[in-house]
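P.,

For your records, the input lines for the assembly:
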Amino acid sequence: MFGFMRGKPEATGTHPLGKSALLSGLRASELKIVEGFLHHRHYLPGEVVFDQGEEGQALYIVLSGRVVICQQGQVDRPIAELGAGAFFGELALLDDSPRSAQARAGDPTELAVLFRGDFERLMEAHAQLASRIAIQLARHLAQRLRNMVSLVPVEAKCQ
Amino acid sequence: MSDQQSDYRSGPVVWAVVLAATCLLLYLFEKVLWLVVPFILALIIYYLLLPIKSRLVLAGFSHDAATGVASSGAFIALLLGASLLLPGVLAEASSWQESASRYVEGGLNFLTATLLHLEQRFSLLAHAHLSSQLAGQMAAINDDFAGKYLPGIAMTIAAWAPSLLLAPFLAFFMLRDGWRFKRFLGQAVPNAFFERTLYLLDQVDRTGRLYFLGLMQLTVLDTLCLAGGLWLLGVSGPLLLGLLTAVLAWIPYVGSILGCVLVVLVAATDFPGDPAVAYGAVALFVIVRLLDDFIFMPLTIGRSLKMHPLLTVLMIFAGGAVAGVPGLMLVLPVLGVMMVLGETIGLVVTDPRLRARHAYAQRLRRRAVTRDLKG
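Structure tokens returned:
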């Protein structure tokens, strides 16, 4: 009855957030909900997003540009470089543990930020939606674990 | 830096600033009470309607449309409720004055009978003629009431009515633009302080939300306990009386005393020849207050504010001294918000790494905008 008041139908793929690995499984209406919880930040090349050892409060999604993940201050020896659609700082959504590495912008970068408090509120208000994000998060962490295990020498695995 | 963050505890300077700022805010709030009261009512409406709005957004509505539908729905429900209740209320209105006089008279009779009983027992009280003095003074107040107090009460209601209409108006815009405002505030914060500031905004929002939801839960628990007890005692209108008393308890101390007086008035009038019922009502009230202070409040409001009991009591007195009854009502939520603000600002300001990162980002920005201006 109130269909005329609804927003225009939007395919997931066309929504800028739909391109992110974390949110790719969500419908357009769900992305709109998540968007209401996100903050957008712009960083210059070299600017610190967060420091290693800092208490994490938020997860970051790269909307454009490039982010360098490295040990504190070792920008010339990056651990990873993340482009548009990637996300980082995900452990901050799970606990208060300190950041395990430093994140700096490699290029002019736009980030979407999901704050832990907002994610908890999302879980309270929209459990189904939040569980989809949590599953994506779990998959991502599982993949990282597999990658780490594959890097461990065979002798160490046997022990 | 993490070590510094986890070890951070507010020092005496931060606490002194928090307490002084709370008192100053209460003083200012008392001056603009016409705006503060509708704002608080609007916050309550906002927190009640927010889940409905979120559901509608999830169902595919835009934020603005969801706000419109949720607000219209609440307004229609209010109109329907009013249209159902209003005829009955208007029919009863003519008997209100009579009922009020009856209850006041019943309460006075109970008080006079109690004083007479005490005068018979203690000669010191008999010499003071308390019962006759009280009867004389109350008769004088009764005679002058219509001429002396009624115009003042009517004027107060007339003056407050327009400002109370602000509440739904404010609630609508909180629902529609609240999330935009939070984002707007976030944009004004430099990148270096962003996460910390977000944490601050979240804590302020959480404190406010938990306080108001806790207050609602506390009111429901108080109402049920009082209504159950009054129903067992056989007092008329137990649910309405319980609700009125629970709402009055929002004002620390003063509200509780008023609520107790109200309950005793009704009990003494319903059972004029049986003072035991009025004493029973007082006992019930004391039991519910004890339950409230030691069980219900720590489970609801106390959990949200996490304050030391001594500080809570001292600040309630300070709030009353600075801003009267509004100060008593507002001191705890204002102190809760100021505590979060003080602790977080203290943490951000005293963190040299965050300040250094901000200075570095400023240098980067300056370099970026002046790159083509050199040489």
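Two observations worth noting. Confidence is low (pLDDT under 50) at residues 1-12 of chain A. Chain A touches chain B through 36 residues (CB under 8 Å).

Regards
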